[in-house]
TrEMBL record:
This is Palmitoyltransferase. Keywords: Acyltransferase, Lipoprotein, Membrane, Palmitate, Transferase, Transmembrane, Transmembrane helix. It is found in: Endomembrane system. It catalyses: L-cysteinyl-[protein] + hexadecanoyl-CoA = S-hexadecanoyl-L-cysteinyl-[protein] + CoA. It comes from Paramecium pentaurelia. The lineage of its organism: Eukaryota, Sar, Alveolata, Ciliophora, Intramacronucleata. Its main location: membrane. One of its GO terms (biological process) is protein targeting to membrane.
C-alpha cells in the first residue's frame, strides 16, 4: 500500500471492493455467489468416499489388502484438501481503481518460452494477442496488466485469469491456478484408484458372484431372459437412448437388489456380511469409474494447459489471434517433450505472488 499514492476516498472504495469479494474472511476467500456450489462439490466428494468406506473398505481389510486400502482411503482426502486450498486462496484480484494509467503493473505469469509469443515491454500492441496487451477495463476503471481479464461473475479483474469455476465457487487466477490443477488431478485419480481396488476385490469374489448370478436366473427364470431379449430387440437394435438408459439402470440395480435379498433370506448366505456381496463392490466400482470418466476431459485439458504453462484464456486468445491473421492450423499447440518438461517444472515451482491487498 505504501507505493501507491491514493486518496482516502479511493482507499475506501478499494477496501469495500475487496470486502465484497471476500464474503467470508479466512474461510471462503474469493467465494462470492457460489458458496452453495462449493459446499455441494464437497458433499459429492464426501458421498463418494462414504460409498467406498461403507461397501469396499471393510471387504478390502477382510481380504488382506490393508496397505492398498489404506493408501486409497488416505488419498481420498486429497480432492477435498486441494479443493479447499483453491477456494480459500484469493485468485489475484486487481481491485477497482488500483492501477493508475501510468503505472506499470507486475505479473508473475509473464515469463515466456523460446517458441511462445514475446509479450514483455512490446511497443507493437497489435502484433500480440489481446490477452497479452495492457487494456483498460471500464468496469473496474483500471489499466489491467497482460494476462489479466475481467470476471463477469465476480465483477473484478483477475491477474492470470483462467476462468470462473462454478464447482469451486471462485475465479481461477494467478494465485490459485496451481491448486486448481492439483484438485482436478486428485479428483480424477482418487475415484480411479478406488475403482481399481473394487475391481480387484470383485475378481477375488468372482466365484461367489457367479453363484449369485445363477441363483438369480434360477429364481427369476424366464422373466430375466425375456427382459434381455426385449432390450436387444427394442433398445439396442432400434437405438432408443432413453430405453437403453432405463434398461441399463435395471441391469445394474436388479442384481444388486436381488443378491441383497438372497443374503437376507437364504440360510446358506446369512453368514456373509453385507459388504461381502460382490455386486455391491461392483456397483461402487462403476460409480467411481463414472466419476473419473466425467472428470477426464476437464482434467486432461487443464493438464495440457499446465504443460504449456498457459491458461485457458491465453490459449483461446492466441487461437483467435492466429485466426485473425490467417495463421491458425490445427495442432499448432503441440510442443516438444523437453519443452513440456520445462513448462511442467515451471508450473510446479513458479512463485505464487502475495495478495496485493491482503492487509486491507
Amino acid at each position: 500500500m505504501d507505493n501507491l499514492q491514493i486518496s482516502e476516498e479511493q482507499f475506501t472504495n478499494m477496501q469495500e471492493s475487496f470486502n465484497a469479494f471476500n464474503k467470508v474472511f479466512g474461510i471462503l476467500i474469493g467465494v462470492k455467489k457460489n458458496k452453495l456450489n462449493l459446499i455441494a462439490t464437497i458433499l459429492l466428494i464426501i458421498f463418494a468416499m462414504l460409498l467406498y468406506i461403507v461397501f469396499v473398505f471393510p471387504l478390502a481389510i477382510l481380504k488382506g489388502y490393508i496397505i492398498l486400502n489404506t493408501i486409497c482411503v488416505v488419498y481420498g482426502f486429497t480432492p477435498i484438501t486441494t479443493l479447499i486450498m483453491t477456494a480459500i486462496t484469493e485468485p489475484g484480484v486487481i481491485l477497482k481503481r488500483q492501477i493508475s494509467d501510468n503505472q506499470q503493473p507486475e505479473s508473475s505469469l509473464t515469463q515466456s518460452n523460446d517458441d511462445t509469443i514475446q509479450i514483455e515491454n512490446t511497443t507493437q500492441q497489435d502484433d500480440v494477442p489481446k490477452i497479452y496487451r495492457e487494456r483498460f477495463c471500464s468496469t473496474c476503471n483500471i489499466q489491467r496488466p497482460p494476462k489479466a481479464s475481467h470476471c463477469r461473475e465476480c465483477n473484478h479483474c483477475v491477474d492470470g485469469f483462467d476462468h470462473h469455476c462454478y464447482w469451486v465457487g471462485t475465479c481461477i487466477g494467478i494465485r490459485n491456478w496451481r491448486y486448481f490443477v492439483y484438485f482436478l488431478i486428485a479428483a480424477f485419480s482418487a475415484p480411479l484408484l478406488a475403482f481399481l481396488v473394487g475391481i480387484v476385490l470383485f475378481i477375488n469374489s468372482f466365484s461367489l458372484a457367479t453363484t449369485l448370478w445363477f441363483e438369480m436366473f434360477d429364481t427369476l427364470g424366464i422373466s430375466v431372459l425375456i427382459f434381455y431379449i426385449f432390450y436387444i430387440i427394442c433398445g439396442f437394435w432400434q437405438h432408443k437412448t432413453i430405453l437403453n438408459a432405463f434398461t441399463l439402470i435395471i441391469m445394474i440395480f436388479g442384481p444388486l437388489l436381488f443378491t441383497f435379498s438372497i443374503f437376507q433370506n437364504r440360510t446358506q448366505y446369512q453368514q456373509y456380511y453385507y459388504y461381502e456381496n460382490p455386486y455391491f463392490t461392483l456397483f461402487v466400482s462403476l460409480v467411481m469409474l463414472l466419476i473419473s470418466c466425467m472428470l477426464l476431459p476437464m482434467t486432461s485439458v487443464n493438464c495440457s494447459n499446465a504443460l504449456q504453462f498457459k491458461t485457458t484464456k491465453q490459449i483461446h486468445s492466441e487461437e483467435e489471434f492466429r485466426r485473425e491473421k490467417g495463421q491458425f492450423r490445427f495442432g499448432d499447440n503441440k510442443i516438444e517433450f523437453n519443452l513440456m518438461k520445462k513448462n511442467l517444472i515451471q508450473f510446479i515451482t513458479y512463485h505464487i505472488p502475495k495478495s496485493r491487498y491482503q492487509n486491507l
